[in-house]
Design goal:
4-stranded antiparallel beta sheet; 2 domains; 1 helix; single chain; 34% strand
Length: 106
């Protein structure tokens, strides 16, 4: 009798450990990956004034319009009396005011 009780207790413990491992792996699989930060982007809208963007290696900024997609390799700047809304791919919203320089993490 005691032997079968001990076996069933072992089974319960092993099943519990297995369940914890499965749940832990499921949580890890759903966490955002560090490498996904390269996929980070922002859609520009509600633009007022002059908003300019340049690619990482460029010296010159170019003016952009509503609907422009800012990527992690780019840098954005707003001029005097300018502002813009950025809808990030993470579902966050950032609003920038005048005379601001902004870039997404790479």
């Amino acid at each position: 009798m005691k032997l079968s009780k001990r076996l069933s207790t072992r089974k319960v413990v092993l099943l519990s450990i297995f369940a914890i491992l499965v749940i832990g792996l499921a949580i890890i699989a759903t966490l955002p990956s560090v490498s996904r930060s390269q996929d980070l982007s922002a859609l520009l809208s509600e633009m007022v004034g002059v908003v300019e963007v340049r690619n990482g290696g460029q010296d010159q900024y170019n003016q952009v319009n509503n609907g422009f997609l800012l990527k992690a390799i780019m840098q954005l700047q707003t001029k005097e009396e300018s502002r813009v809304r950025l809808d990030l791919s993470t579902k966050s919203i950032v609003r920038l005011g005048k005379m601001t320089i902004f870039s997404l993490p790479q």
